[in-house]
């Protein structure tokens, strides 16, 4: 899965092992994994439950660290960054979309989208303006003042996407973004992700169980027993 | 500032729980403020006691009297500037609950000894000219709505009159104010010469002496010299600083400071558990939300700060409401209807209250905040 000749590789995962410890037991989730993702790609990661898809996503997004190997994003070894620097890096370069949206129930859509901007030096007015633009992109301007409980699942996920893109990140990581949605809402979300990829050039890595969703990606990889392949296992 | 709405929005998540916690904290700080005012009422005399004043009393007990002739001997002791005698009258105005101290004194000596009593020259002269005249503190004047010229009957419990009567009548000719907020303005002074001539017995005897020393650093040495002067006499003396004497007087009721501190410690410990429990629940309930904050770039320290900020917000709102209410209640008046010499909430206790708010916020919030700080994003998102 490595293309060492590509000068425009955004993500490079090299020889990554990930071992979880449960008491005295060691669980090898990823073993010697290599992966290159070019800038502007929309990559779908598929595989059975427990195959390590989300773990790989977490490693690329700097939410976790590999037990062995390296993770480079935009030429920077993120596995070597301190916790504090890694948090700053995530704020600047990564947008995260979760299966269950993970919005703050006590904040309305506008404030939820503004959250990542609190970590910037932008003024209150500028934060509000950028959040409004992000909500406009996902088609939710008219719901800005609504709280998550007042939004449908699809609207909540669109709010989650607006929150993910509000800082204009390099990389969009989506963990089963349509997993909690009906087909129609799921399609709308996939349309949106596709548009962000094609029109705004966002590099997207999407973990999914859904072949229909994976079909929207420009490349699909399958993860099984800690190894990547281009074909699903029989 | 930009995180305020995030902190306050989080507090609004469980409105009833937050409200009840704030109410508990408010009650604790209301008690703190009110009891602080009561403690201040007992300590007021001690705090404004002159560092250069000593009290000489009978060695056995304050109720044993001393000869008036001691005054001249005390004034001759090296290091003594002047001395003034006082006696406990212990009378009742109308009914026992209307307590205030009545003390026969020599007016000139009183003026010299207590410069913190502010009296106009005109009223000083009036008192010197009126044998049955009384000098009354502003607090007692207002308590009973007395005016200059009023004739006040006091029923004696200790000192009967030569004519067999027990009702003494005094004319209010002067009023004193306190130079400091803590100055006791509840006292009722009248002339010793009138007292000594009118009382049925005890002529030539006084209750205690107040002695001003020329150098406060030599106070202990002067006290020893005074007691040595009267050693082995029929009326031996015990000399101590004015503050210790007043404290001893207050301690006849009980160690008020200790009692109040004990009550407040128990209250604060309980409220600390309530606030700590609220914060622990608040963090446990939103593990995934805190993980999301970290995932989008909040640092471990940032999340710790947010949780501590919530703890501070909840404690500050409750504490400030409690202190404010206490101040309001104290301003409405003395619960004993005027028996306390002073009754107010000192600024120092308000500052102490603010420090307690900060301390309580930290102690209640630090464990949940550390728990939030240590949260592993990937683990927490899986929950």
Layout: helices, strands, pairs:
The complex is a heterodimer of chains A (234) and B (383).
Chain A: E1 9-22, E2 25-38, E3 42-46, H1 53-60, E4 68-73, E5 76-77, H2 83-93, E6 94-97, H3 109-114, H4 124-137, H5 153-165, E7 171-175, H6 183-200, E8 203-207, H7 211-214, E9 219-224, E10 227-229
Parallel strand pairs in A: 3-8, 3-9, 6-7, 7-8
Antiparallel strand pairs in A: 1-2, 1-4, 4-5, 9-10
Chain B: H1 4-11, H2 15-48, E1 53-58, E2 66-67, H3 70-76, E3 80-86, E4 102-105, H4 107-113, E5 117-118, H5 121-129, E6 133-137, H6 138-143, E7 151-155, E8 167-178, E9 188-191, H7 192-198, E10 205-206, E11 208-213, H8 219-229, E12 237-241, H9 242-250, H10 256-285, H11 287-295, H12 300-331, H13 347-374, H14 377-382
Parallel strand pairs in B: 4-9, 6-8
Antiparallel strand pairs in B: 1-11, 1-12, 2-10, 3-11, 5-8, 6-9, 7-8
Helix pairs in contact in B: 1-12, 2-9, 2-10, 2-12, 10-12, 10-13, 12-13
Q: Identify low-pLDDT runs of chain B.
A: none
Write down the overall mean pLDDT of chain B.
Answer: 90
DSSP helix count of chain A? 7
Extract low-pLDDT stretches of chain A: none
Give the spatial strand order of the biggest sheet of chain A: 6-7-8-3-9-10
- Biggest interface found: A-B, 27 and 26 residues
Number of domains of chain B: 2
Number of helices of chain B: 14
**Relative helix content of chain A:** 25-40%
- CATH topology type of chain A: Rossmann fold
For CATH, the homologous superfamily of chain A is named as P-loop containing nucleotide triphosphate hydrolases
Distance N to C terminus of chain A: 20 Å
CA radius of gyration of chain B is 29 Å
Q: What is the helix fraction of residues of chain B, given as a range?
A: 40-55%
Number of strands of chain B: 12
Biggest sheet descriptor of chain A: 6 strands, mixed
């Amino acid at each position: 899965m490595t293309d060492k000749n590509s000068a425009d590789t955004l993500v490079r995962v090299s020889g990554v092992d990930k071992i979880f410890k449960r008491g005295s037991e060691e669980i090898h989730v990823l073993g010697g994994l290599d992966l290159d993702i070019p800038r502007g790609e929309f990559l779908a990661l598929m595989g059975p439950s427990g195959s390590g898809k989300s773990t790989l996503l977490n490693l690329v997004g700097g939410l976790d660290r590999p037990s062995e190997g390296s993770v480079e994003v935009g030429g920077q070894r993120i596995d070597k960054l301190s916790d504090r620097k890694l948090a700053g890096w995530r704020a600047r370069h990564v947008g995260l979309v979760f299966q269950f949206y993970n919005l703050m129930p006590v904040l309305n859509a506008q404030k939820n989208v503004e959250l990542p901007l609190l970590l910037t030096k932008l003024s209150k007015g500028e934060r509000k303006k950028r959040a409004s633009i992000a909500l406009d992109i996902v088609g939710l301007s008219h719901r800005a003042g609504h709280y998550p409980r007042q939004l449908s699942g699809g609207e909540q996920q669109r709010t989650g996407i607006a929150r993910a893109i509000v800082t204009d990140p390099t990389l969009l990581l989506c963990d089963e973004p349509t997993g909690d949605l009906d087909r129609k809402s799921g399609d709308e979300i996939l349309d949106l992700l596709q548009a962000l990829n094609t029109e705004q050039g966002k590099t997207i890595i999407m973990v999914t169980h859904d072949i229909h969703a994976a079909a929207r990606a420009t490349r699909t990889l399958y993860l099984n027993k800690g190894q990547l392949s281009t074909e699903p296992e029989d | 500032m930009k995180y305020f709405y995030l902190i306050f929005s989080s507090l609004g998540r469980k409105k009833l729980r937050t409200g009840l916690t704030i109410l508990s904290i408010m009650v604790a700080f209301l008690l703190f403020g009110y009891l602080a005012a009561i403690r201040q009422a007992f300590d007021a005399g001690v705090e404004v006691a002159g560092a250069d004043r000593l009290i000489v009393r009978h060695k056995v007990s304050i109720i044993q009297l001393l000869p008036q002739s001691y005054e001249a001997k005390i004034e001759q002791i090296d290091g003594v500037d002047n001395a003034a005698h006082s006696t406990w009258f212990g009378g009742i105005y109308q009914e026992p609950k209307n307590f205030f101290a009545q003390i026969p004194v020599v007016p000139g000596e009183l003026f010299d000894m207590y410069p913190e009593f502010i009296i106009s020259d005109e009223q000083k002269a009036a008192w010197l000219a009126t044998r049955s005249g009384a000098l009354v503190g502003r607090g007692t004047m207002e308590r009973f709505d007395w005016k200059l010229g009023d004739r006040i009957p006091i029923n004696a419990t200790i000192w009967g009159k030569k004519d067999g009567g027990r009702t003494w009548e005094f004319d209010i000719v002067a009023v004193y104010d306190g130079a400091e907020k803590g100055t006791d303005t509840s006292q009722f002074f009248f002339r010793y010469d009138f007292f000594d001539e009118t009382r049925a017995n005890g002529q030539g005897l006084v209750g205690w002496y107040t002695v001003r020393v020329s150098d406060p650093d030599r106070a202990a040495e002067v006290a020893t010299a005074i007691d040595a002067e009267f050693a082995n006499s029929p009326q031996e003396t015990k000399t101590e600083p004015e503050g210790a004497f007043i404290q001893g007087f207050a301690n006849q009721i009980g160690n008020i400071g200790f009692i109040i501190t004990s009550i407040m410690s128990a209250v604060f410990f309980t409220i600390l558990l309530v606030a700590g429990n609220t914060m622990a629940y608040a963090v446990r309930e939103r593990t995934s939300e805190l993980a999301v904050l970290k995932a989008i770039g909040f640092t471990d320290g940032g999340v710790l700060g947010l949780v501590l900020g919530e703890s501070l917000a909840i404690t500050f709102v409750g504490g400030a409401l409690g202190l404010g209410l206490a101040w309001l209640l104290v301003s409405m008046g003395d619960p004993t209807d005027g028996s306390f010499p002073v009754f107010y909430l000192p600024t120092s206790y308000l500052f102490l209250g603010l420090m307690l708010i900060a301390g309580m916020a930290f102690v209640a919030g630090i464990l949940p905040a550390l728990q939030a700080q240590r949260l592993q994003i990937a683990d927490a998102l899986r929950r």
